[in-house]
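README: folding subset

This subset contains proteins for which both the sequence and a predicted structure token string are available. Records are stored as plain text. Below is the entry for Gas vesicle synthesis protein (262 residues), shown exactly as it appears on disk.
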Amino acid sequence: MTETTGVWMYAVTDGALAGDETEAASGVAGEHVRAVHEGGLTAVVGTVPLDDFGEAALARNLEDLDWLERVARAHDSVVAGLARHVSVVPLRLATVCLDDARVRALLTEHEEQFSSALTLVAGRTEWGVKAFADRKTLTAAVAESDSGEADSGSGTAYLLRRRAQLAAQENVERDAAARANEIHDRLLRTSAAGRRGAPTDPALSGSHEWMVLNGTYLVDDDRTDEFRSEVEELGSQFSGIRLETSGPWPPYSFAGAERISP
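--- output ---
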């Protein structure tokens, strides 16, 4: 490295890497990706210009959504390519060290954390599940459930239905939250781990649907079909709730890399 370049970190693994798994990959600056070893760990990195990826430049560039999207895609492409061959701990975007010596020091300082994370994610992949609620349909479904099976032609039945409709309108957010909780709990049964995040900002997602669940799940690779079948069943079980699945992804949500700083 020189005073004008730094080292961008993509991921850490304890698996052996064939040369073509790194040399063929192109990184965030179009650089050839390479490996830095320390102990039983390997960091996959790339040499990048500090004019674009130094601290001051990053503070400026991260505000540029087009630049951020382009760099994030390149970063994920490297990580996803590695994850097809070995277990990886993805590093958070913009983890930049001054040189290879600092990369090796980071591997030593966080050896226990990296090793524990690699044990957790081995043979597993991350999946995302989002639940969107349609307020009108959900209100009607809750009202129908609450009104019971009374004779539809009787005055009593009408009053019961009307009362249920008013109650459902008042409590629709509570009912949506209850359904989201049940969906999350059910998905945890077919996952090794699961996390719930804040709903995605509509400005970033491009969708104005009402998101009631933003979940990520670490799923054993040999239970993928079971997990996806459970999502499909849940999607048909709850009126007014639409489920959207994404993945498979490298295990970004379960590696703990957000706590690692160069």
